[in-house]
Amino acid sequence: MNDKCIDFHLGGDRSDISLNNILQFATCDEEVPLLGYENGVKPSTTFHEVAENKSFIPTANTCLLQITATNTISLEIALPDEETLFQLYDMAFLNAYFGRK
């Protein structure tokens, strides 16, 4: 489900979010460097199982150029409704705290 959020944002379907917002969230760069990233490292997305009572807000590791999104492999923890999930991603992509605040 969360990969759907990222695809939705990348597709430009969220009016307040641009690809630059997502790139800046993941890398702290406003644009891709002219010569690319060091050693061919490319921005990536990983998924981890969300623990009970934890947040569904995606986080970023700007050193690894990586967005970490939550997933609910087990059926014990339900995803928030779609609009709430999109709002969490919007908030993360538009703030300067990398989803940690």
From TrEMBL:
<protein>
    <submittedName>
        <fullName>Leucine-rich repeat-containing DDB_G0290503 isoform X1</fullName>
    </submittedName>
</protein>
